[in-house]
Specification:
Elements: H1 12-39, E1 41-43, H2 57-64, H3 67-90, H4 95-126, E2 134-136, E3 149-151, H5 153-167, H6 172-189, H7 202-207, E4 211-212, E5 216-218, H8 223-241, H9 243-267, H10 279-284, H11 293-308, H12 310-313, H13 323-329, H14 331-345, H15 355-381
Parallel strand pairs: 1-2, 3-5
Antiparallel strand pairs: 4-5
Helix pairs in contact: 1-3, 1-13, 1-14, 1-15, 3-5, 3-8, 3-11, 4-5, 4-14, 5-8, 6-8, 8-9, 9-11, 13-15, 14-15
Length: about 400
Amino acid sequence: MNKMINPSVTTGRRLMALDVHRGLIIILMAIDHASYFIARVHSRELWGVSLPVYPDALWFWTRWVTHPCATGFFFLMGIGMAFLADARRGAGWNEGRITRFFIIRGFLLMLLQLLSENTAWMLGGMSAHAGAFVVRGGPMPGGGTGGMIYLGVLFALGGSLVFWAFMRRMSSWAVTAVSAAAILCTQVVTPGPDRAHTLYSPLITALLIPGYNNTFAVLYPVIPWLGVTGFGLLMGRLLQRQLQKAVAVALRAGIGLLALFIVIRLAGGFGNLNVIPPGWMGFLNLVKYPPSLAFLTATLGLNLLFIASWGRLDAHIHSTWNPLVLFGRTALFFYLIHLWVYALLGLLFRNGAGLAVMYAFWLIGLAILYPLCYRYNRFKQKKPAGSLWRFF
């Protein structure tokens, strides 16, 4: 694992910091999914329809603290592509083999979306008693009968990985331009409320505008997230070349993005993708599907500030027994298994549960996942570098 960091600029300890970051956001993500399976409550911040309304601040923050997770996964995937490509070159792989490896991983993510993730969501939905499930936010945009195939975060991660597998060797200026264009295109092309019930083609829905059509139900189209992965790729390059500069850039960029977030919200209009509700909750109630510029500036800014704090965490993160390190090193395995763990725990709460019970079972789920992830981490470390088992 230490080979994934360029020894000329840092040590293997820095990779552990990446694992900690990934482990933290995947644990926070599990809160949202525990809410879905245990409390039978889920929020959807969609374009063109009403945003969620929360009964109190605790429920609001329960949802909000999970917002940086999706952005963090795409950003860290871009960083990981830079490190992994460098490591494989050092092991003697040519560029074609590296590209093929990324493409295979990307399509595997899409396949796992269909075969593993979707079935867990179905179990969770079908196990709830009628009327027990609470969806906060307006109905899914789109037309038709409603998609039978759900395209979620693994689909978009896979699509982004395949795209950047082909484009990863572009200059940093070109990566910046493509990434910015993907994000800005989303802000310009996403329709207003008057088009919320328009039937878009399956291709448009899967790539750009989330919602229903007669084929898919999409929350994570690919193009809106390409830019986040691309900026992660740029950060990975900088971390390899100049670690201290990269940390300084992360700090300045994080602060700058959070300041830009405030400007976007105060100005209203462009970059919000929906009407801003009143009050402080409304100010922080951001469109996630697709990610608005306000959403991305807030969540990417927070991720960058965490990256800038890595040096201060060094003394506390070296142990492989650290849950954040362990879950970060087995992030995909954790993701796939945790859905089934919470779906099965949710069978005990077919009418839903309160916030305190949900949090208690979130922790129980993490306790169940820890030994599973520990054993899997030991298993995959014995596999060769090219093995797909090391991907999980």
